[in-house]
Design a protein that fits this description.
- By secondary structure, this protein is an alpha/beta fold.
- It is 29% helix and 17% strand.
- It has an eight-stranded parallel beta barrel, surrounded by six helices. A seven-stranded mixed sheet has the order 1-7-5-6-4-2-3, with helices on one face.
- Strand 5 and strand 6 form a beta hairpin.
């Protein structure tokens, strides 16, 4: 079959997103009939089930499952150890043999093949009931593909605005449809605790709801007067995890400590660094209410994490660790003395309370390690006291990512300058709740996560590791650089109070991010207006937006928001990316950063 694609980003029928590494299109098509027979290797059965389920619903047919190796199967899913991890080769209408054959390196590759097969069937495959005379018709083609990055993630913040379980399941479906394989659930923050914990019922009785929510930027002080809340039961969590697993998505839970904990402290004030009662936070920004970094607090959260490890099956658990003001610790002589007693001292020999940040996270990371899990933290937690096996998620820029890798940490790139999808998408006055940097669809497509795959030099970051890693980002003596695990887009929900608003913020930009994270061999020049960028937008317009339409996704139109997607009168807060980079060089490394508060 002739290869009609000029490259992965070319506009070729049938407009797959993410683009595959290789697509060869032939003349004609095949029809998968009612009663078709599906045979899959046992290890690949979950992916085969997922495809069968969507195909039967969308086209009103029954597909029979037969034993692997059955000679008369119409659709065959087999293992092929010669393919790269996560890879697959899909043949449709190859002549002799089955109508469809998917050879897969592993279960991850089979999930990717199933999603590609769904896209090949056209927008109708993304509906949950058949149109009259619906036919499962597939173009004759051969697709060979494998992922560019191992960790292709998206964070969904359900703490700022709770998202009901059904909407989380829907978001899992959309992530899987774009070959994303990690969903980080941000379950706890100052504005709400969303996880029922048997040992500590007040976390949800008190911490899961707040009296009202701020409308727009926190700078206005304008509340909506409407209580907001919600939480997930243990049964809900297990259902979300199982649902995601069946679709090839790993759910990584995030329990944010020792900052972003005002909801915890409203329920259990004895854990606070400052005495006194408080309520769940009703506004955005960064609270200076933090945990007392004590053995008591470590024990409390170790019990929380024990349940997290029971209910979530991911090999990773995120501990937050971002935006931790130390003012309350510095105010207490006993905390200063505690730091000194632990050997956490500054150049003057006095107790350095800032290092209690790393000490606290290290204790919980060790606890997770004893449960067979690996901790993940935001990059502010990177420093001399963080165990080397902890994964660092770099949100403040690539410089801190290089420094963390130099110190031996594996890294996930998640820079707010590129892939924070709550940031505004246009300059227009009709852009709803315009916050943060201007990040268009084309800007996200231009994001390059592996521009410096081995770049670990030329970085200035305060602090040094106890094991001798230098502060300039060069590898420490005897320390192998950490790996770049992958990249992650973030959907923070301070201003996204429903699934409709999440759709608007996430799509179609998440489709652009997914292609950057998945597709091998993308053109180096993907800047807005480049040939590759224009081709991607056209492929999106002609082939992929109709799929999102069929799936009921209320994405932002390429020409700007629909009237009902606007939020007139709701004040945002604009940031200038060029100006911040000019001052800081790489946003976030010059000192205290407002971060997500600054995005508002």
């Amino acid at each position: 079959m002739p290869d009609t694609a000029a490259g992965p980003a070319a506009t070729v029928p049938p407009g797959l997103v993410p683009a595959p590494a290789s697509l060869q299109v032939a003349e004609g098509c095949v029809v998968v009939p009612d009663g078709a027979r599906l045979a899959a290797a046992p290890q690949l059965a979950p992916a085969a089930r997922a495809w069968r389920r969507t195909a039967e619903a969308a086209f009103g047919i029954d597909i029979a499952t037969v034993e692997a190796g059955a000679p008369d199967a119409d659709v065959v899913v087999v293992l092929d150890a010669a393919l790269p991890p996560g890879g697959y080769r899909l043949r449709v209408g190859a002549g002799q043999g089955p109508l469809v054959e998917a050879a897969c390196a592993d279960l991850a590759g089979a999930h990717a093949a199933a999603q590609t097969l769904r896209q090949l069937a056209g927008p109708a495959a993304f509906r949950y009931a058949p149109a009259p005379a619906a036919v499962l018709r597939l173009p004759a083609c051969e697709v060979t593909d494998a992922p560019r990055l191992e960790w292709r993630g998206v964070l969904l913040d359900v703490a700022r605005h709770f998202l009901p379980k059904a909407d989380v399941l829907r978001f899992v479906d959309l992530a899987a449809a774009h070959h994303l394989d990690v969903l980080q659930l941000h379950l706890t923050d100052d504005q709400g605790w969303r996880l029922a914990v048997d040992a500590y019922p007040r976390l949800t009785e008190v911490g899961s709801w707040r009296g009202e929510s701020t409308v727009g930027t926190w700078r206005t002080g304008r509340g909506d007067g409407r209580p907001h809340g919600g939480c997930y039961s243990r049964a809900d969590v297990r259902e979300i995890v199982a649902y995601a697993r069946e679709r090839g998505v790993t759910v990584v839970p995030e329990i944010d400590v020792p900052g972003h904990v005002q909801a915890v402290l409203a329920a259990y004030p004895e854990l606070a660094a400052r005495a006194g009662a408080r309520a769940v936070r009703t506004t955005w920004g960064i609270s200076d209410d933090v945990l007392d970094p004590s053995p008591r607090a470590v024990e409390f959260f170790a019990r929380v994490l024990d349940q997290v490890c029971e209910d979530f099956d991911a090999p990773f658990v995120a501990l937050g660790g971002d935006e931790v003001p130390t003012t309350a610790w510095r105010e207490r002589p006993d905390v200063v003395a505690r730091a000194a007693g632990l050997g956490l001292v500054g150049p003057d020999g006095a107790g350095d309370v800032a290092r209690l940040h790393g000490w606290f996270l290290a204790r919980l990371a060790e606890h997770l390690r004893s449960r067979g899990r690996r901790a993940v933290v935001w990059d502010e937690a990177f420093g001399p006291d963080l165990p080397r096996d902890v994964v660092v998620t770099a949100w403040r820029g690539t410089a801190v990512a290089r420094a963390a890798r130099a110190a031996g940490h594996d890294v996930v790139l998640a820079p707010e300058q590129h892939v924070y999808l709550d940031h505004r998408q246009g300059h227009g006055a009709d852009e709803p709740v315009p916050v943060g940097f201007l990040r268009t669809l084309e800007d996200v497509y231009a994001f390059e996560p592996v521009a410096e795959p081995d770049g670990v030099t030329g970085v200035a970051v305060r602090g040094a590791r106890a094991d001798g890693a230098p502060v300039d980002g060069a590898p420490a003596r005897g320390v192998a650089p950490g790996r770049l695990l992958g990249a992650q887009a973030q959907v923070w929900t301070e201003h996204l109070d429903s699934a409709r608003r999440i759709d608007y913020a996430a799509f179609p930009r998440l489709a652009a991010f997914a292609e950057v994270a998945w597709t091998r061999g993308l053109p180096a020049d993907r800047a807005p207006g480049s040939r590759a960028s224009r081709a991607f937008v056209e492929r999106l317009r002609t082939a992929h937006l109709p799929r999102l339409d069929a799936a009921g996704v209320e994405y932002r139109p390429l020409a700007g928001p629909h009237p009902w997607q606007t939020r007139p009168g709701v004040q945002g807060h604009l940031r200038d990316l060029a100006a911040e980079v000019a001052v800081a060089g790489d946003v976030g490394l010059g000192g205290w950063v407002e971060g997500r508060a600054g995005a508002e």
